[in-house]
Amino acid sequence: MFVELAARGAAGNATLPDRARFQSPNVVIERKFHCVHTPPAPWWHNLGNAHAAASQRTFFLSLHTDQPPPAHHVDNHPDDHLDSRTGRLGASRHPVIRLVILTTTLACSLLIGFSAWFIWSARQTQIHQADVAISNVARMVGAQVESAMKAATIALADVAERARYDTAEPGARERLQRHLAELDRTTPELHGLFVYGADGSWLATSLDRQVDGNNYDRAYFQHHRRQAGSAVHVGAPVKSRSTGVWIIPVSRGIYRADGTFAGVALVTLQINFFERIYDELDIGRTGTVLLMLSDGTVVYRRPFDEKLIGTDLSKGNIFKELQKTRAGSAFLHARVDKVVRLYSFRHLDTFPFLVAVGRTKDELLSSWLRSSILIGSAAVLISAVFILFANRLVRQIRIRDALDHRLRMYSEELESHNVGLRVLAHTDKLTGLANRRRFDELLELELKRAQRGRTPISLLLLDLDYFKQFNDSYGHLAGDACLQRAASVLSGQVARAGDVAARYGGEEFAVIMPNTDQAGAFAVAERIRAGIQALRIPHRHSPAQVVTASFGVATLQPGGDGPVTAGDIIECADRHLYSAKQNGRNQVSTGTHDDATLP
């Protein structure tokens, strides 16, 4: 057997052995390495160079024996794909990969989390700002309605007071007519002023023409006729009989000094007046303004729809919210057009009106949505870059880990084969016992140890009786089988740590027994002899008719006159073996008078 190691160098690069070759009579193991290790470079230099890194490492292992190649024979070339199992090794064990994954996950989580928080905060800010703006508009609308109603009630009080006097006096009706016209001219909020008699007939009007008619059937007229008092009544919107436009009637009863009903004073507010004002409000293209009476009757709604005037919205969400609080804001689903809006709503303090101003959710959040898409997209893009960067880095580490793992695996495999070669070099192929070379090495070693420690050592030599005749009669295959069975007896009886059974040559065997005196060696030899005979291997040329063995035992005791060599103790044991054969075979021979002694 020989061992050949050759190293191939590269300028500026340290290399591992490129070729290692081990040979014995039965096996040749050959390995090629091309593992160029360059000085460590910054990790960013390695990104995208996975293939280059892989191509710098080449492994080749070939196993040649006198048997067919085993199933686990490996033949890797530079273009081989990495094994998935080794490729995953770094993911589960490499601390750098765990750190990269943890750092990337943390960075992406923080980035996404901060972006989400920023987007949510911007949304809340946008809603708050819109709420403030809409609340201000609602407050302004309410103030404008309050102002118009105050002007109407002042004019109404004046008209009612003048109408209490007897309009039958000469010129009284004309004076009242002129006064109503003057009030109408000086009060832009008003549409018209009217005075009706107790029967509903028109007594006076601010119109520039006399109109014959009767308003006895109007709801406001019936209200004052049935309920005495000076309270102002705001009626549901109606179409004016004099002009044909939608108006809000604001009325007050006229009563004589004795309390009897004398008629009704009426001031009307034209709904178009509110429409002209509310259309100018900057509440978006789909924003809405809603003016209702306290019972939920629609007075006006932007965008204007004549069909909605007088509609009952007491079942709507806005009216329900206004039943809970005097003023507030909320996202509500409109009953009219089914659109979700942010509404600001309030009760007027003095008059029975409800005001609501709303902007659609989509419209008021449109600018926020655009910026959120940009921020979110940027966060996702940056996170994707982080993940891609980390993935490439992790892949690079995994590839390098896989290559290092393979190198370690091949090194361990080579070491395992080296161990196997050492075993093969020291083992007899037929019997599995130590061979002659190993026997000689161990005998020298144990003799030196015995001399240093001044302990006894025994050597057994045994020879199968008439083995040449056995081979001639039964054949060499039967002879080999006989040797193997005899060796198994030795292995079974020589079980103490430190004892070594070896094939000495041909049909001869030897047993080295450190720390064993003559009696102990004789007992072991006798057990082996009996065990071989108990195998009952037929042997027609043996007096016992079965295979037997003869033994020679030599024991070296401390206290001799000089050093003893391996040849000395072998010669002593061989003499006793010869003696056993001369005395009839199938026995153990010892003789203390011939034993050498250790100094």
TrEMBL record:
Main localization, broad class: membrane
Transmembrane segments: 96-120, 368-390
Domain GGDEF span(s) in chain numbering: 455-593
Topology of this chain in the membrane: Multi-pass membrane protein
EC number from the UniProt entry: 2.7.7.65
CC per GO annotation: plasma membrane
Reactions mediated catalytically: 2 GTP = 3',3'-c-di-GMP + 2 diphosphate
Record SUPFAM superfamilies: Nucleotide cyclase (SSF55073)
SMART domains recorded: GGDEF (SM00267)
InterPro entries assigned: dCache_1, Diguanylate_Cyclase, GGDEF_dom, Nucleotide_cyclase, Rev_trsase/Diguanyl_cyclase
Subcellular location as annotated: Cell membrane
Alphabetical UniProt keywords: Cell membrane, Membrane, Transmembrane, Transmembrane helix
UniProt-recorded Gene Ontology molecular function terms: diguanylate cyclase activity
Top EC class of this enzyme: transferase
Any one of the GO BP annotations: cell adhesion involved in single-species biofilm formation
PANTHER family: DIGUANYLATE CYCLASE DGCM-RELATED, REGULATORY COMPONENTS OF SENSORY TRANSDUCTION SYSTEM
Record-given protein name: diguanylate cyclase
Organism ancestry: Bacteria, Pseudomonadati, Pseudomonadota, Betaproteobacteria, Burkholderiales
